[in-house]
Amino acid sequence: MTHAAPDSSVDPTYDVSTPLDLDYYGVFADVPDEDRRWWQGARDYAEGLEARMSRHWERGEYPVDLVADAGRRGLLTDGVEVDGVGLETMSPLAAGLVNMEMSRIDGSLATALAVQGGLALRTLAYFGSEEQKAQHLKKLATAETLGSFALTEPTHGSDSVSLETSARLVGDEESGHYVLNGAKKWIGNGASGGLTFTWARVSGGVHDGQVRCFMVDQQTRGYRAQVIEGKYSLRAIHQALIQYEDAEVPAAAVLPGATSFKDASKVLFATRLGVAWSAVGHAAAVVESALNYATQREQFGKKLGQFQQVQERLTWMVSELTSMQLHVRQAAERDMAGLLTGPQASMAKYHNTRKARAIAQTARDMLGGNGILLQNKVARHMADIEAVHTYEGTESVQSLIIGRDLTGFSAFA
Questions:
Q1: Is 392 one of the annotated active-site residues of the chain?
Q2: Which of 81, 130, 392, 395 is catalytic?
Q3: DSSP-based three-state secondary structure for 234
């Protein structure tokens, strides 16, 4: 039987976005119904958004309306305790599954979740006063108010403990105010309106020399933020370079529970596992693209999936994806049992973002020239994985955290 040769004058298109739910070991087969409901809610939210997000990514546009939509659906809370403001609290497993699903669709959407819920909302929930939480917690959880977490500085990334942004106390700590000076960089939502949770070193008062967190309204005089341009990763969310120039905030802007850099680290520890989940979503997306493509693309008279080398590559990618799934499921179980340690969260991120990068590289190669087209989604995910690999602590920092835990010796400078 002979097959008609494809018409060489027609540029074929490929459906690479069909969800395949690749779970070779059934890692998520026994997910409780309540957690699965959240997972399905994230999929329902994201259905049909992929093409739109690809356009936003290409243009460098931030679709804030989609963030608000996710907030109205309760998808931004990231496992933070919000029962007290009339919203449902997700389990750590549900939060991870939502993060994974959002990342499978688009990394910028997932990063908006991480910023809004994982960082800003969590900071207020952990360290805010009852009055501050009553006023702002629900608005942040639903994205009625956008929130940002300002720790990283232009000259202090991995060594953020050395932050130089200052908060000078004027008057007393009850009725006075603080004057903020300094700069922050890579701050998601930092130029999008709303509240910026700013970490700064205090001068004056009983907290002199300590690192504290300030809830700064972005309309504050002396707060200047500009969107960072020229990114090739996470292009559909805006990150900002912020300048504080004698920005005055009242004493009531201080989060009373945040009194040291260790408190900032507590937030980052809680979100680090979310990054590992995000890596699973990105990896699943590119494996889906590669497998869908292999069953549709023809070369040398047969489907790519019929070639031995292609099957070997697909097998390798799925095996690596499976190892990533095992990491996050086990870590989530330990988190729910109260047993997850900081180094274990670092291990999940260290392992999963490394694997996601390698999988994306192989998938891009499998798609050949079509792999660099945004419509085939691998290139977008491949670029976004680079940012995920870096934020919430670089690979080098994660390895030093794990190494210190293994040896008892700190290799930090």
A1: yes
A2: 392
A3: coil
